[in-house]
Amino acid sequence: MAGTEDAYTAEPFVPKRGGLPALRRAAAGCRGCPLHRDATQTVFGAGGATARVMLIGEQPGDQEDRQGKPFVGPAGGLLDRALADAGIDPADAYVTNAVKHFKFTRAEPRKRRIHKAPTLREMTACGPWLAAELALVEPELIVVLGATAGKALLGSSFRVTQVRGTLLEEEIHGRPERLVPTVHPSAVLRAEDRDGAYRGLVSDLRVAAQALA
User: Fold this and answer.
1) For residue 5, which of 52, 70, 167, 202 sits 20 to 30 Å off, Cα-Cα?
2) What sign for the dihedral angle of Cα 174, 175, 181, 185?
């Protein structure tokens, strides 16, 4: 495996057989790109293999990196509330990220870690994990959370503002998928009009709920 991280692909680390537990164990040792060096741990997807909807975000944040689970920070709490308000049971969802390691910068040593957007190259390197998750879960619907996740799935021309709250049909990793894009819940937390931004997120998620009905 020497030099694998310079190849920028997770492919050699993805097991050829086994379910989600095998995938999660293998991902813990991923060295497919340099992001693993600074992160505390791999943050793999969470949820059951029979989940009807897969929610895909950008990457783990500070809390997720420390706890090893996706969407456990403030954005995750807001997402759970928005799903429930839209009529989607959070327990019926599989949540994951396009990139499985936290990418961050620090203004000074020991200071707060500041989220840094992953590059297209890093997202592409992590793509084999997402492809494997999709193949095992086979969700009826994908909810794309934010611009970075959209670019990872649909290419660099993706603009979340143009397609949010609409039902798309696209081929993702060789499989025909139905997708509903919306903003990332962290964008709601940063919004000046947080109530309005939250209502917009719930409205988009209702489109997803209707598609699952």
Assistant:
1) 70
2) negative
Q: For residue 199, what is the enclosing H or E element?
A: helix 194-212
- At residue 170, the 3 state secondary structure works out as strand
Helix (H) or strand (E) holding 212: helix 194-212
User: What percent of the chain lies above the pLDDT cut of 90?
Assistant: 75
Is the C-alpha dihedral spanning 145, 136, 38, 80 positive or negative?
Answer: positive
Distance of CA 4 to the CA centre of its chain: 23
Query: What pLDDT is recorded for position 97?
Result: 96
CB 173 within 8 A of CB 155: no
Task: Find all residues with CB under 8 Å of 156, minimum gap 6, and list them.
Answer: 120
- The pLDDT, as a whole number, for residue 13 is 94
Contact 186, 64 (CB under 8 A): no
Question: HEC states along 10-34?
Answer: CHHHCCCCCCHHHHHHHHCCCCCCH
* pLDDT(166) > 70: yes
Residue pLDDT, tens place only, 53-107: 999 999 998 899 999 999 998 999 999 999 999 999 988 999 999 999 999 887 7
Q: CA 33, CA 123: separation in Å to the nearest integer? A: 10
The CA distance from 14 to 22, in Å, is 9
Identity (one letter) of the amino acid at 135? A
Number of H helices, E strands in the chain: 9, 7
